[in-house]
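Revision sheet: structure tokens.
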Amino acid sequence: MLEQEEFDLGATYPNIIFATIMGGGLLIGLFELTFHYTQLDGIAIRAYALNCVWAAISLMILLAAIAVGRETKQVRYNHRIEAHIPVTVYEAPAEGQPNTYHNATPGMTQDVSMGGVAVHMPWPDTSTGHIKTRIHAVLDGEEIDIPATMLRCKNGKAVFTWDNNDLDTERDIVRFVFGRADAWLQWNNYEDDRPLRSLWSLLLSIKALFRNKGKMMANSRPKKKPLELPVERREPTTIHSGQTQEGKISRAAS
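Predicted:
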């Protein structure tokens, strides 16, 4: 969690000093090659050119090392993990109504974390007021119900935060995030290293040093195909004559 952008000058000032000296030397070499080219012999021209290339490469490495010292604003407490899990969202009863969750809405998670979950689901847009819900899922035949609060919903994407108030709920959240059979399959799912792309990423990091404070670089997520609706859902729990009757799990075509 980092509320404002920060720059660690204490850790990077040696590199800044070297980068300044290197940049000055590079400018002197370019000046001599540009304005005094006719006055230089062949050996001097080659020497200036070689040192300019070496200085440019060294300066790029120094600027990349300096860029590490800049920390951008971070507003998330928990890292999000991409996961597509069929869930059913139940809305909590209003005050004065029977203690029965209703309005079962099927959905598919986009990502999960220890702090909350994002779900694609057919729900009207909501930006004001928090809605108490329960999120139901079936993982490897085990049913999990986690209390959550819907913070907002827009364009069919709802964002929830977990109501983690006891150890049982925390256990279910850990099971939901880390205890799935596929939770660790993509831990090493990195793209193949490509030198030109790595060089481009390095140049973007250097460019970020000179952007205005608070201005974020355009780095949107790639567009993905719409998520399929879940095929597994559970009927709401009902209470008859003081006895609780669990809803049945049914399967439906997506």
